[in-house]
Amino acid sequence: MINNRWKGLGLGTIGAALLIAPATALAQAPTTPLPTTPTATPEGGGIGLVGVVAALIVLIVAIGIAVKFYDLKRKREEEGVVLQARLSDALLLHPSLVGMPVVASVHMPLRRGSPPLVEVKGTVANQAAREIAMQLVQRELGGVPAEVEDEILVDPLAIKRVAAA
């Protein structure tokens, strides 16, 4: 068995040899720099500069357009959230719709002139409650031109299931 002290000495010697070898190799390198040949500038070198400047301008314009579309999308989504909150509050607070799961979802298109899509979904106990919900949505839209999709299901047992749960 080899003593641990001698193992460390052997690895230290190998490590020192590896560190010294590059120093001796560097010392043998020539000290005078190699002569350089002058490079000729090609005629039309300004065309490359114009191309780079044009590419940068196109990139800046593209980034500006992307930011404008992102801002427009964000504003339209914000308008949709406001409209959806107004419709949801009206549906939740109406006394004849209490306990009936009726919700309105609003999807806003990117174009400003396009009407929003309002989906009214849920389950009501009778046809009268369905009509009340749709009239309430139309009233809350208040003249906003919108496409309204009626996806309300009439289920007479809906109130009994909600009460039993």
Summarize the structure in words:
The structure is a single chain. By secondary structure, the protein is of the alpha+beta class. The protein has a domain at 60-164: GMP Synthetase, Chain A, domain 3 (2-Layer Sandwich), CATH 3.30.300. The protein contains four helices and three strands, in the order ααββαβα. A three-stranded mixed beta sheet has the order 1-2-3. α3 links the parallel β2 and β3 (147-154). The mean pLDDT is 79.
Concise overview:
The chain is an alpha+beta fold. It is 58% helix and 13% strand.
Strand content: 5-15%
CATH structural class of the domain at 60-164? Alpha Beta
Ranges where pLDDT stays below 50 over 5 or more residues in a row are none
Q: Give the integer mean of the pLDDT values.
A: 79
User: Taking strands numbered 1, 2, ... along the chain, how are they ordered across the largest sheet?
Assistant: 1-2-3
Described by its quaternary structure, the protein is: single chain
Major sheet description: 3 strands, mixed
Outline the secondary-structure elements.
Layout: H1 4-27, H2 45-93, E1 102-107, E2 117-124, H3 127-141, E3 147-154, H4 158-164
Parallel strand pairs: 2-3
Antiparallel strand pairs: 1-2
What attributes characterize this protein structure?
alpha+beta, single chain, 3-stranded mixed sheet, 165 residues, elongated, GMP Synthetase, Chain A, domain 3
